[in-house]
Amino acid sequence: MDNQHACRNNILFPCLVEEYIDGVEFSVETMTIDGRHTLLAITEKLTTGAPHFIEMGHAVPARVSHEEKTAIFDEVQELLDAVGHTFGPAHTEVKLSSKGVHIIETQTRPGGDRIPMLVDIATGCNIYKIMVEAALGRPVDLTATRSKAAAIRYVNANIGMIERFEGIESVKAMAGIREVRMLKEVGTYISELSSSLDRVGYVVAEGDTVEEAINRAEAASRRINVVINNVENHHV
């Protein structure tokens, strides 16, 4: 083998290697006005495993201790200061492991997956209303006006063509259900769950405790049948 051919087969390509951080994932919902960061809520997450880590549920407030809550918010404040964030909402994802709080990423916007709705239900803080009023220079009150809980759970479905949905109206009548929405239409082919765009639909529920909100959302999501190719995907 000549040297030129050997070199072609031993090219070194640049790559990025990151440490995998174990532990529990949360997101931190904050509002910043005049450089001062206020914690609105910490959101608890339910994700699938490797390799895709798709978020299949959220709950507010997260079940963390006072010490953990303080440590998480301290890290987020330091991050927002470091990036020069002085106005508006932020949605920061963190992991809490045995080694402490680890920042995963941050976006200077409200969270997705109906998280602002969960925050509003649980605390009375409407992130979008606060954003507009603050931008107009009006005084805003970031103090929570209620102490409840809210959760969202996504609906599971088998692979195949959606023929119909069953149970939606009965789910809407269940106690504590605030919103039910299908993200896919009849006739859509459902493939293997590999990204958040593959999720079929969701249910939002409220409760006096986070456990109650989660239980209601999970029970409701299981009652929605996604009928695939004349075979019912019945959740029990």
Q: Topology of this structure?
A:
Layout: H1 3-8, E1 24-33, E2 36-47, E3 55-60, H2 66-82, E4 88-97, E5 100-107, H3 115-123, H4 127-135, E6 149-154, E7 160-166, H5 168-172, E8 177-182, E9 189-190, E10 201-207, H6 210-223, E11 225-228, E12 231-233
Antiparallel strand pairs: 1-2, 1-4, 2-3, 3-6, 4-5, 6-10, 7-9, 7-11, 8-10, 11-12
Organism: Geobacillus subterraneus
Domain ATP-grasp: 16-136
Pfam family, one: ATP-grasp_4
Care to describe what's here?
This protein has 6 helices and 12 strands. Strands 5-4-1-2-3-6-10-8 form an 8-stranded antiparallel beta sheet. It is globular. The chain has helices at 3-8, 66-82, 115-123, 127-135, 168-172, 210-223, and strands spanning 24-33, 36-47, 55-60, 88-97, 100-107, 149-154, 160-166, 177-182, 189-190, 201-207, 225-228, 231-233. Helices cover 25% and strands 34% of the residues. Strand 4 (88-97) and strand 5 (100-107) form a beta hairpin. It has 236 residues and is of the alpha+beta class. The chain folds into 2 domains: 24-147, 2-Layer Sandwich (D-amino Acid Aminotransferase, Chain A, domain 1); 150-233, D-amino Acid Aminotransferase, Chain A, domain 1, CATH 3.30.470.
